[in-house]
Design goal:
By secondary structure, the protein is mainly α. 72% of the residues lie in helices and 1% in strands. It has 17 helices and two strands. It has a two-stranded antiparallel sheet. The longest helix is centred in the C-terminal third of the chain and has 46 residues. The radius of gyration is 23 Å and the shape is globular. The two termini are 17 Å apart.
Length: 422
């Protein structure tokens, strides 16, 4: 038998695609500086002075955190091989849990409450997909629909009659502490107001990152660091990721695949619940019906954009948060200025694709760049009807042109039964 299988294995080795080279550590700080430089050039060319302001950066972070936490939950689940469309429902449960616990026990317990309610959603999804073998998409969609009804019932049951509460909202919630780096806000603010090329833009970005930051945001950053460490630097994480690549092989090596999948989906629910808790405790200081606004789905898209890795997920979440903040703060003028940057980036993508011999993708990128450029040069602002869709359109464009480098876990979404390898 070994003599028969050896040639096939040899052919597989010869035809295996080359692994992509990992980006060096210095790439990310250089990319950040380059991004700030591009925003500085764009500010000078277009006159949109809010592009790199501390206010816009702070708003972008606040808008990105719940999306990032939902996407991080999806990353845990899908790295173990379970597709989690139910992130939206888990976030919905997290918003109610944060409001209930936060109102009765304080803001910090609100975080715990959001996480616990998200865990309930994760356990339901894990029970359906891992234990009973329900299709992952069907289970996730059912969870989203059910969570909306559960949250509405619980809000009507527990918030009606409380001061400021009702069927569709909770009473005002206590706020979490906000932190700033001492001694930076004043000098950086003065430097930002001087409008010095690149220097003021850099000051605005640094001030936005170090001033009036919620403690919840710091927790989210630590969760990203912890996720990377546990999943990519520990034997436990290696075993979990093996369940998403080849559960049969993992089981043959003694890994309890069912246990790891269950733990991963439960952790996914906890993180999505934390994303909902951020919306209730930080973004609004109140629970409202429909508060998530599809952010669970956007988090899933950000996770895919990030190639199922924490760093890429964070970048995708910040992209969406930035465009959404630009829409809310600067209106049509700021978003209109971003069109020029999008057109230039699409031209670069087109040139790279054509250089690699991918003519279809290159031509599509070039035509899209031409259309975006024409919109920029022949209009002065973005119509209000299109302004609300700007973050979604930006996300779709990035996903469309980044899709060729994506590689999902090999066994993601597959139904697994214990003992299949025997």
């Amino acid at each position: 038998m070994s003599a028969t299988l050896a040639p096939a294995a040899s052919d597989e080795v010869r035809t295996a695609p080359k692994r992509r080279r990992r980006l060096p550590i210095w790439f990310w700080p250089v990319a950040v500086v380059a991004g700030i430089f591009i925003l500085a050039v764009l500010r000078v060319v277009t006159g949109a002075n809010d592009l790199a302001s501390s206010g816009l950066i702070g708003a972008a972070i606040a808008l990105a955190v719940p999306i990032a936490l939902a996407g991080l939950g999806g990353l845990w689940s899908e790295r173990a091989g379970v597709v989690n469309i139910g992130l939206e429902g888990m976030m919905i449960l997290g918003t109610w849990g944060a409001a209930f616990f936060g109102y009765h026990m304080g803001a910090w317990m609100g975080i715990v409450g959001g996480m616990l309610c998200g865990i309930v959603g994760g356990l339901i999804h894990a029970l359906a997909t891992v234990t009973f073998g329900v299709d992952h998409i069907v289970s996730g969609v059912a969870l989203n629909i059910t969570a909306m009804g559960i949250a509405k019932y619980l809000a009507a049951r527990f918030f009606t009659g409380l001061p400021g509460g009702g069927v569709t909202q909770s009473p005002p919630l206590p706020a979490l502490p906000r932190l700033s780096v001492p001694g930076l806000a004043g000098p950086l603010g003065d430097l930002e107001q001087k409008r010095i090329f690149f220097v003021s833009d850099l000051a605005g970005v640094v001030r936005g990152l170090t001033t009036n930051i919620s403690a919840f945001t710091i927790i989210a950053v630590l969760l990203f660091i912890g996720t990377f460490y546990f999943l990519w630097r520990t034997p436990w994480g290696l075993r979990l990721r093996s369940c998403g690549e080849s559960p049969v092989a993992a089981e043959s090596l003694g890994v309890n695949v069912i246990k790891y999948k269950f733990l991963a989906v439960t952790t996914s629910g906890a993180l999505a619940g934390l994303g909902g808790a951020f919306l209730a405790l930080v973004a609004a200081n109140i629970y409202r019906d429909g508060q998530t606004g599809g952010r669970g789905y956007i988090g899933l898209a950000a996770m895919i954009f990030g190639n199922w890795r924490p760093g890429g997920l964070a970048a995708g979440s910040l992209l969406f948060g930035y465009t959404d903040a630009a829409r809310l703060r600067g209106g049509g003028q700021t978003v209109h200025a971003l069109l020029l940057a999008i057109a230039v980036l699409l031209l670069i993508v087109a040139a790279l694709q054509l250089r690699r011999g991918r003519r279809t993708q290159g031509y599509i990128a070039a035509i899209t760049a031409l259309v975006v450029g024409l919109v920029y040069f022949f209009t002065d602002t973005i119509p209000g009807e299109l302004l609300g869709a700007t973050p979604h359109i930006t996300t779709l464009l990035v996903l469309a042109f980044a899709a060729q480098r994506l590689r999902m876990p090999a066994a993601d979404g597959q139904i697994y039964r214990k003992g299949e390898g025997h």
